[in-house]
Target: Glucosamine-6-phosphate deaminase
Amino acid sequence: MKVLNLGSKKQASFYVACELYKEMAFNQHCKLGLATGGTMTDLYEQLVKLLNKNQLNVDNVSTFNLDEYVGLTASHPQSYHYYMDDMLFKQYPYFNRKNIHIPNGDADDMNAEASKYNDVLEQQGQRDIQILGIGENGHIGFNEPGTPFDSVTHIVDLTESTIKANSRYFKNEDDVPKQAISMGLANILQANVSFYSHLVKRNVLLLHIY
Model:
């Protein structure tokens, strides 16, 4: 493992954006694991700038998102489908929609959806790069500390601290979904290279590279 102190969130975001861009440029069939949230906003802004500047062909790039809230439709402004469209896929509209994979948080049977998404991950194989944020208590995605390392895609009951932390994106805390569908740690660890961002204090971010 390598840990980089890049001095600021913006510098770390640019570093990872460049790594994602290089992977797509040199491997047009690459598989990228993507994440959402405030830590990722600068990253996607930097990546979109690089993509638009160079008009990179991404038709064969496949993306796999980490998680989604249970109970939110893809069109809900706080869903991760909406976030990814807003931050990346509409800003650079050349990704092939059939190669974009995000869990469906509004499925009739969420356990079946988790199994279905896990099957997709297994069929597609190892991701070339996985990006992730590490929460204040060490959670990765919606996997809280203590989640088994052999866990696969599953439904998670959100902790009170996670609900409270995410309430800033909603009108009030009661509007925050109480569950999410998330890759498990076994899925996450399948990636060839992972970038874990850890905001240690305001605008200072450590980047863990595995």
Remarks:
- Helices lie at 9-26, 38-54, 80-89, 110-124, 160-166, 185-188.
